[in-house]
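Good morning N.,

You mentioned wanting to compare the apo and holo forms, so I went ahead and generated the holo version with magnesium ion. This is what I fed in:
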Amino acid sequence: MQSVPTVSCPTIRCLICESDNTREAVLCGECSAPLALIHESVAQERQPRIVSIVGESNVGKTVYLGFLLDMLARRAGDFEAVPKGAYSVNLQQNVIAYMEQRQFPPKTPMEPDQWYWTYYQVCRKTRGATWVDLVMPDMAGEALSTEVDTPKTFGVIRSLLDKTEAAIVLVDAALAASGSPQPDFFALKLMTYLDDMFAVKRRQRVENAIAVVLCKADYCPECFDDPGGFAKTNLNRLWNICDNRFANVRFFASSVIGSLGFAAGVDDTVVPVPLHAAPRGILEPFEWILDQMR
Ligand SMILES: Nc1nc2c(ncn2[C@@H]2O[C@H](COP(=O)(O)OP(=O)(O)OP(=O)(O)O)[C@@H](O)[C@H]2O)c(=O)[nH]1
Ligand SMILES: [Mg+2]
Ligand SMILES: [Zn+2]
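and this is what came out, ligand included:
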């Protein structure tokens, strides 16, 4: 009888949650991360490093990440960036396509299998700089708040943050400037969660780099002059926890909008219309994060 050739390793291990999957699977059966991430990292022979973009729903994560990746792909600043796998381009393509039609992209769905994942190789053009492989997913803010409020409900977020080396924390500066305590409370909860995940020893401050980005700063341009001062005044709870528990934090301000119009939506809602894009302060937090990850 003819012997059947045996395959040495019939399964592959998910990069995010480390559960085993069949080689044919496209998404991880446990956490829904694309298994293409593994194929990419095997091909590069370099361990990818994870940077997470976090913040509550409607803060501007999808818009920020879409613009950031598009600027990197267009060699803004002194960066070279190569997207790995066509799936890595979908997020920026989606965001830019909506903005061209003077619309903001829709809300990210709660289901992790609907999220955009991106795998980028990034390098500074300066001499001697090395390439870094970055995995940056665009998660839904509502899923993140559920996980923060009730840990372990979204395994993918927990696994992801567990492997996260540096985080870009987005906070709604426009809402904070209008006097709402909501962004400050959400950020405080989020930082407490990150403190639990990242802290090596309770008494020591967290070393992971955290860039706090004050989004929608077009509504409150004073943010650009002194983001730290703005946070200390308008997001005081966040500022305090950063000061107490995180050793490597920097505040930034960002906006993607040059001018904004308003239109009437369904049910008498007011819909913001991005009349033209003028990204400001998008690359700076990323540049700083990359410097901290050497
Ligand atoms: N004025 C202004 N508005 C912005 C800016 N960025 C985002 N927005 C507004 O914020 C809304 C939400 O942006 P998203 O990027 O979809 O927010 P998100 O954090 O991905 O939200 P979830 O997908 O629900 O987690 C947009 O529809 C815009 O109305 C900005 O730079 N300036
Ligand atoms: Mg989103
Ligand atoms: Zn997984």
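The first strand starts at residue 11 and ends at 13.

Happy to go through it together on a call whenever suits you.

Best,
F.
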